């Protein structure tokens, strides 16, 4: 109720009301000049042609905005991963204000920033859409991970950077394809992706963000991680007792937050992990969770290619 009251107060102050049928109007004074209509997961929204004060509510949208040369004025954080995506460098992150977490955006903090565009995800924030739209024009993508390229292009369009987004995505896809071709035997190399979460271990499939990047290079995956029999091909769980199931020709390992990192250290010091063929061959590599898992954008994807080049080209 407090959130709703705050949003209603904001709406009155800004001269807009809660919207119907998935439509929202631009905030008066937020942008001078023309607006554009964006069709998205919640309907159609008029946004400023060149938004200047952007708030983003998912990790992919931080990557997208910064990749396109726009520094958000506010961003939600991802639970255990409490920092911004450091792979952009501290100077590009200095001006961003925290506005809650992905699943619980801080509406009062968002309103105080007076944004002229909010980018979010129906998957994570659907129940907040009307309240957010009362603050500023709000554009939501549908899903996360599997649709990361479509999300990137839609968010790029909302930011007034549609062609730049297309160019960046095309350049990434060419780089991924060229890298796989350079390896020569890409399809025969089985790349395992393992992530330690608080309380469980995940292997990532072909429809996860990092799995899609691996697929774009033409590299192969272990049968266990192709998830052929599963409808959800993003990830599956493996218990510490079944850790031998994560083996591959090369293993890339991440941990989501400090608790997971501690669990990772315990498991990877154990005999089952040490007995994996990739580990014995010196081909298990710890990589950044920010780039492989939470980045979900074109710059993060290029960082994954950097890691692949580093560890597979030698």
Can you put this structure into words, describing what you see?
With 314 residues, the protein is α/β, with parallel strands linked by helices. It has 2 domains: 2-160, Rossmann fold, CATH 3.40.50; 177-312, 3-Layer(aba) Sandwich (Rossmann fold), CATH 3.40.50. Helix content is 40%, strand content 19%. The protein has 14 helices and 13 strands. The chain has helices at residues 2-14, 59-67, 90-93, 107-112, 122-125, 129-135, 148-158, 162-183, 209-217, 257-268, 271-274, 277-280, 289-294, 298-312, and strands at 35-40, 43-48, 54-56, 74-77, 97-101, 104-105, 117-121, 138-141, 191-197, 200-204, 235-238, 250-255, 284-286. Strands 6-5-4-3-7-8 form a 6-stranded mixed sheet, with helices on both faces. A 5-stranded mixed sheet has the order 11-10-9-12-13. A two-stranded antiparallel sheet has the order 1-2. Helix 8 packs across helix 9 (209-217). The chain is globular. The model is unreliable at 1-31 (pLDDT under 50).
CA-atom Rg in angstroms: 21 Å
CATH-scheme architecture of the largest domain: 3-Layer(aba) Sandwich
What is the CATH C-level name of the largest domain? Alpha Beta
- Write out the CATH superfamily name of the largest domain: Nitrogenase molybdenum iron protein domain
Mean pLDDT: 89
Structural class: alpha/beta
Count the strands? 13
Short account of what is shown:
The chain is α/β, with parallel strands linked by helices and 314 residues long. The strands form 3 sheets. Strands 6-5-4-3-7-8 form a 6-stranded mixed beta sheet, sandwiched between helices. Strands 11-10-9-12-13 form a 5-stranded mixed beta sheet. It has a two-stranded antiparallel ribbon with strand order 1-2.
């Amino acid at each position: 109720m407090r959130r709703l009251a705050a949003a209603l107060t904001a709406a009155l102050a800004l001269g807009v009301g809660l919207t119907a049928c998935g439509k929202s109007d631009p905030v008066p004074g937020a942008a001078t000049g023309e607006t554009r209509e964006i069709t998205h997961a919640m309907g159609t929204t008029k946004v400023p042609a060149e938004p200047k004060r952007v708030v983003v509510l998912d990790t992919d949208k931080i990557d997208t905005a910064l990749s396109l040369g726009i520094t958000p004025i506010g961003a939600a954080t991802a639970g255990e991963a409490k920092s911004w995506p450091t792979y952009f460098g501290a100077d590009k992150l200095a001006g961003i204000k925290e506005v809650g977490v992905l699943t619980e955006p801080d509406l009062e903090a968002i309103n105080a920033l007076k944004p002229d565009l909010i980018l979010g995800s129906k998957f994570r924030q659907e129940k907040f859409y009307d309240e957010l739209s009362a603050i500023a024009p709000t554009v939501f993508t549908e899903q996360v991970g599997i649709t990361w390229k479509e999300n990137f292009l839609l968010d790029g369009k909302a930011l007034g950077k549609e062609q730049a987004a297309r160019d960046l995505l095309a350049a990434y896809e060419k780089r991924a394809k060229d890298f796989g071709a350079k390896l020569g035997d890409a399809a025969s190399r089985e790349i395992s992706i393992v992530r330690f979460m608080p309380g469980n271990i995940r292997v990532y499939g072909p429809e996860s963000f990092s799995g899609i990047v691996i697929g774009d290079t033409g590299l192969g995956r272990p049968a266990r991680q192709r998830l052929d029999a599963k409808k959800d091909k993003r990830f599956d769980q493996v218990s510490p007792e079944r850790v031998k199931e994560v083996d591959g020709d090369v293993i890339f390992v991440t941990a989501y937050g400090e608790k997971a990192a501690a669990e990772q250290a315990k498991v990877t010091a154990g005999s089952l992990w040490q007995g994996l063929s990739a580990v014995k061959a010196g081909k298990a590599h710890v990589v950044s969770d920010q780039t492989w898992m939470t980045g979900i954008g074109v710059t993060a994807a290029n960082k994954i290619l950097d890691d692949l080049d580093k560890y597979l080209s030698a």
